[in-house]
Amino acid sequence: MIEIELSAGPHLEGVERRLREWAAEDAVARLWRRDPTLWSADPDTPELADRLGWLDLPETSPAALGPLDALRADVPFWFTDLVLLGMGGSSLAPEVIARTMQGEGLPLTLVDSTHPGALRDLEWLRPANAIFVVSSKSGTTVETLSLFRHFWSRTAEVVEDPGAHFIAITDPGSPVAELGRERGFRAVFEAPPEVGGRFSALSPFGLVPAALAGADVAALLAEAAEAADTCKDEAHHNPGFLLGAALGELALAGRDKVTFLAASDWGAFPDWAEQLLAESTGKEGRGIVPVVAEPPRAPDEYGEDRVFAGLLLGGDAAREAEQWGEADETPDLLDALEAAGHPTLRIRLEQPEELGALFFVWEVGVAMAGAALGIHPFNQPDVQLAKRLARRAMAGEGAPDADEIDLVWELPRFGHAPPRTPVPPDVDGIRERVEDFFAAVAPTDYIAVQAFLPGGEEEEGLLGTLRAALAGATGATTTLGYGPRFLHSTGQLHKGGADNGVFLQLVDDAGEHVHVPETNFTFRRLIRAQGLGDLEALGRCERRTLRVRVGGPEGLGLRRLIQLVEESA
Q1: Peptide linkage before 484 cis (omega within 30 of 0)
Q2: Quick one: pLDDT band at residue 320, thresholds 50, 70, 90?
């Protein structure tokens, strides 16, 4: 069973006081009664009382296991790939489950990028041998629908019955549900509408793709049910309430950046927790900043704005790993961080199926952290702004372009004619702009790198190097999100949270156009509009932003940016 150990130093009294207050207010029973006044004095607040269905999922979701087993048995043996088309809460959980609970099902490929380069990287995929899961709660998500149209067209070119290659997961009566029935999808799964996307890990959104990938979802739900029982205990013995009190009180004390450190077995989980924390708490000028896969520093180089959450192997699993020489260094690192005065959360698990317990405890914890912070954890009021501005950019309205630094100019070589693109006349001016921008970053800020780029191993390595350079130059925390994926994950925090975020938007020319079938636009136009829309939304929220054009051969633009940042340190 999941174990949580908190070391909070001088902040421990605040956590204990919060737990005593919740006990006096009967907060545990009120949560399970779906009492919206835990978060708002107005019980009719939209998306509050009607977004607590996730509490029932450990008990109700096992009823769906029979249909899932039938679906899995019905998948033809010549299907070799499982492709998940979805964004944010519709896709993060199944990816985490598939990576953590590796089964013998179909290998899962998550497609959540509208960058033409990312789609070209999927040309290896054979639609005739693939099953596609179209996952969208609202059924109107432009990225998911565009990706569906792309892969439907590719599938229809090579098979007579493309619908047999598609499954939908959505809310009842949504456009995707109707689409699935109209086009003869293999199956349409309708999820409980009273469960928000980021709380849907134990619903069909998480379970259907995970089952097809071979995960033991019955064991996952059994662990979640056991965790749900412990989350009914009184506050001081309740893991979800302990986590919520710790996250909330530490954030109120200025420790608002939760930095994840994970043993390799649990390395996928922070990607899911990132959305849960950012989108649930980042609003009304407050928020908890999740920090995932940040290049490590020495313990004394971190500021007093950090909390470290370690996901560790426990019990027999830890002893077995040590016996085979596979012991993880995370416990020693947490010890060093604690010795340096940083609050730490140690979360120990033994078996992969305990991921179900981990999901549920974090859902309770983040919901109760919202209560401690005095915010509504189930809505996302600032997400629509970027979507609306992206639609304007798609329609050619608003600013057609944005002020940006271009780091992909061509340099003349000895013995060659000058290139068509001239060398910028003021390279020193570019350097000065970069230096001025980062000079305004405080050590307690976080720098969010927003990469509207195609991805890939080499690029991710360069972005890791960039994050390390940014930390060295400013002392600030760094985060990384790929666009448009992060718009559905951390975008709410960026615009609705505290004004301690600094935003570095990275774009490229997106290469050749890839048409979106059944529409009048291309993926290149879509991702460029999404970048411009988010940039304008950040500007309207008076956030500090810098837009840089990178790209070029062998990561030329990123390498130049890294050099500029290192020179400004």
Answers
A1: yes
A2: low
CA distance 141 to 176: 10
The mean per-residue pLDDT over the stretch 481-489 comes to: 97
The answer to whether the CB of 356 falls within 8 A of the CB of 222 is: yes
Q: Show the 3-state SS of 345-373.
A: EEEEECCHHHHHHHHHHHHHHHHHHHHHH
Q: What is the pLDDT of residues 262-309, one digit of tens each?
A: 999 999 999 999 999 999 999 999 999 999 999 999 999 999 999 999
Range with the lowest mean pLDDT among 62-66, 342-346, 418-422, 550-554?
418-422
Which phi and psi angles does 428 have, rounded to 5°? Answer: -65, -35
286: left (phi over 0), alpha (psi -120 to 50) or beta: beta
Rounded to 5°, the CA angle 150-113-399 comes to: 100
Query: If you average pLDDT over residues 389-411, what whole number do you get?
Result: 78
Taking the C-alpha atoms of residue 403 and residue 314, their distance in angstroms, rounded to an integer, is 51
Instruction: State residue 123's pLDDT score.
Output: 94
Give the pair of three-digit tokens for residue 278.
Answer: 């950012």
Beginning with the edge strand found earlier in the chain, give each strand of the sheet holding 289-291 in spatial order: 3-7, 344-349, 306-313, 257-262, 289-291
Task: Give the span between the Cα atoms of 508 and 552, in whole angstroms.
Answer: 8
* pLDDT at res. 410: 57
pLDDT (average), residues 94-102: 96
Separation of alpha carbons 435 and 439, rounded Å: 6
CB 345 within 8 A of CB 308: yes
Q: Is 410 helix (H, G, I), strand (E, B) or coil?
A: coil
Q: Measure the CA–CA gap between 270 and 266, rounded to whole angstroms.
A: 8
Separation of alpha carbons 209 and 93, rounded Å: 9
Q: How many CA atoms lie within 13 A of 544 on its CB side?
A: 17
Distance, CA of 78 to CA of 80 (rounded, Å):
6
User: Taking 80 as the threshold, does the pLDDT of residue 421 lie above it?
Assistant: no
Residue from 479, 493, 506, 509 nearest 543 by CA? 493
* 401 Cβ neighbours under 8 A, 6+ residues apart: 532
pLDDT at residue 519 is higher than 50: yes
* Dihedral angle sign, alpha carbons of residues 234, 235, 237, 238: positive
* Beta strand segments in 424-536, E: 446-452, 477-482, 501-507
Question: Residue 260 forms beta bridges with which residues?
Answer: 309
Contact 101, 216 (CB under 8 A): yes
| pLDDT for residue 318 | 62
> 78-108 burial, b if ≥16 CB within 10 A, otherwise e?
eeebbbbbbbbbbbbbbbbbbbbbebebbeb
Cβ(492)–Cβ(283) below 8 Å: yes
